[in-house]
User: Fold these one by one.
Assistant:
Number 1:
Amino acid sequence: MAPKLKRALFKANKYFFPKTEDDYEKWWGIDVYFPDISNGKLWYHYSSKLKVDDSNIVDGYFLNMLLENSEYGAFVRGGTILPIKIHRGALSLLRTQHNPIRLDIYLNNEGTAKSRLYLDDGESFRYQNSLEQALIEYEYKDNKLTCINVLDSHHKYEAAQHLKLVEVNFYGLYRPPSRVKSSYRRRQYLDFEFIQTK
């Protein structure tokens, strides 16, 4: 029998189930509660990017979900966009401040997703004194990905204008796009790769 965990940390649209150091077996089991999964909400396993199979849900719980010893029980709600900083082996987040990002887009049943990313220099109080901050909203809707700064024009953070988006990954996209178009590049249509998962 695999060890069982019942503790969880829930933050916004992400679930994290910690693993203890005494989990020596190849597999371990957890009981996971997924809010609103019985109402048609989707959840994805963060490591595998696969949807949680709702046929195994009893009263909102997936009982004894088995994970390999090297896996963590982290889950993302469908309808979420996770901006991920490309670290490239950096040991400090401050060293990655100007690194590019990728977006991991986990679609809901309606085929939409939305999220916000807050940015400032991470060191000073200029976000208070000089309003040097940005709040970027990403939204995927009607087959379009948009991004806007939702703060008014008095809030200016120059580094946000130079933030590069180098990769976009969609999960829950059923049909491959025929083309990918960008309004920010000289070459309008971008190369892309479509990899079908379960």
Number 2:
Amino acid sequence: MKIKNLFLGVATAAMAMAAASCSNIDEGDRLIYVKPAEVGRAILIEDFTGQKCINCPTGTEIINSIVETYGEENVIAYQVGLLRRFKPLVAVGHDREGEYGHGAHRLNALALEQAVVYAADASYDAESAAQYGVWDTPKLYLHFADENPIFLDVETPLESFGGKTAFKVASEAMLCHESQLQYAHRLTLASEEFPRYDCRRFGLVRSLVGADTGNDIMEHLC
């Protein structure tokens, strides 16, 4: 597994919604930024089940292999470099428990939470800081995070997509993900059988611009 694959986000549908409305918020009216908790560079991952997941029983092996091959610090540093280089207004990551429990997804999500903090710290990875400058990502969402949950509207037809919904566009994009088609052929909304497969639910785990008041991941950014 190449390390660049770790940075793949969950949210094809979420990114499709990035063209949604923006709000102009006066500086004095913004919510006070809550400083993120101090984090160390060690990552804790708890593995407790592989039920209904053909890949999950080897999840721990995948995590150990990644850490052994690249090292936790290198995973974080790679993400820091990407954040500094591309300077996103919004970063979207995997479920902390992994999409269907996948170990690489879990490592990616936990590392990304630290990477957004370190990307703003000029003393961390001086080489990429010198090359790209530091960057403090305004908003970080993780799939199914409990903090400040939102449910994206992916079922409204959008003119910018030729009348297609974000869910339809994401579903068509899924067909290009050839390595996954042997396991799944479509995205899903809420279901009793696979509740954590819902592509609409995200949580705002870190924000420099205050909490969301609706279901727009670009809120307060324009």
